[in-house]
Amino acid sequence: VKQKLLQHIDEKVTPKTGNYMKTLLLGDVGSFETDLLQDFKDLGLLHLLSISGLHIQFLFAGLSYLLLRFGVTKEMSYFILVTILFGYGSLIGWGTSAFRAVVVSFISLTALRFQLKISSLDAWSITLLLALLINPYQISSVGFQLSYLLSLLLILFSKTFLAAQHSYLKNNLLISFVMTVASIPVLMFHFFEFPWIGTI
How buried is 14 (Cβ within 10 angstroms: 0-12 exposed, 13-18 middle, 19+ buried)? Predict the structure, then answer.
């Protein structure tokens, strides 16, 4: 299915746009030139090309809205969304960020559907434990460390100073600054450098 979708994008879309579509929708970075990928890494912007919780949230918020608009019941919507969620996880390959995003979304959807008192921090913690049960060695991976560290910070800070009434620009700069500072120890440990321009 993934191969057919990639082929369809190649046939219908211009190469440059197609490369971004394949990366952002299907997690396929193979189409990008090595030099371009290295530029993204050097600027600290490679995370923009990886499928994250934000991608999944946008996708499923849109799907959920459409299902409700078409008159599908909340119960049926839950089963449709869960099926699509795990199908999408299989399609994009269950990488570190994809696994975290899919499982957290599944836990949140289930909590909402069955009115369970599960916070976003609980969902994050359960997902972390599941990931480590599946493969404990991935804890030494830089992708794993950054994915879980930065998502934890977003959860923790969204309820404190990021929830304060700042302007849109100030709030985004604060989030970028916190994420950049938090990622410095991990990046310096693995690569002996960090991209300061990433904040901007």
Answer: exposed
